[in-house]
Amino acid sequence: MNNKGQSLVLFVVIIPLIIIMFVVVIDISRLYYEKIKLDDINRLVVKEYFNRNDDEIEKIIRKNDNNINVEIDRNDDSITLTKYIDVIFIGILNKNQYEIESIYKLEDGKIIKG
Predict the structure, then answer these.
(1) Side-by-side strand order, sheet with 78-86
(2) Spatial contact of 96 and 30, defined as CB atoms under 8 Å apart
(3) How far apart are CA 27 and CA 92, in angstroms?
(4) What does the alpha-carbon distance between residue 48 and residue 21 come to, in Å, rounded to a whole number?
(5) Which residues, listed in sequence order, are joined to residue 11 by a DSSP beta bridge?
(6) How far is CA 4 from the centre of its chain?
(7) For residue 101, what are the β-bridge partners?
(8) CB 97 within 8 A of CB 87
(9) Residue 84 · residue 67 · CB < 8 Å
(10) C-alpha span between 25 and 30 (Å, rounded)
(11) Which of 57, 73, 63 is nearest to 107 (CA)?
(12) How would DSSP label each residue in 5-63?
């Protein structure tokens, strides 16, 4: 019995699945990295610069990343940072951009995740 064609069929079926899994892992890893980066920027701003005016805070945030939406709530002592990340494969399933949000508050001199 000749099984030479069987390997080719398995190769053609499995390679696209491996590529899809690889691209999904890259998308999820990038989203996770951007979330950590956004949280770090937010903690830094809340800890070091919260007593400055809102324009200075926005300049500090924009120096780190230009694509971040900034919302400062002086009544609640919180800063909300939002960023939209373009995704490759996950976007085909749902949407082309994912929203990542980071909220931190300053309460009694301590930084609290909101």
Answers:
(1) 68-73, 78-86, 97-107, 110-113
(2) no
(3) 12
(4) 41
(5) none
(6) 46
(7) 82
(8) yes
(9) yes
(10) 8
(11) 73
(12) HHHHHHHHHHHHHHHHHHHHHHHHHHHHHHHHHHHHHHHHHHHHHTTS-HHHHHHHHHH
Q: What's the pTM value of the predicted model, to 2 decimals?
A: 0.78
Residue type, 95: K
Write out pLDDT tens, residues 81-112.
999 888 877 656 666 788 899 999 888 878 88
Number of structural domains the chain divides into? 1
Among 86, 89, 96, CA closest to 25: 89
- Whole-number Å distance between alpha carbons of 40 and 65: 12
Distance of CA 112 to the CA centre of its chain: 19
Q: Which long-range contacts (CB under 8 A, 24 or more apart) does 101-104 make?
A: 101/38, 102/35, 102/38, 102/39, 102/41, 102/42, 103/42, 103/78, 103/79, 104/39, 104/42, 104/43, 104/46, 104/78, 104/79
Quickly count: other Cβ atoms within 10 Å of residue 102's Cβ: 23
User: Which domain range does residue 65 map to?
Assistant: 4-113
For residue 113, pLDDT beyond 80? yes
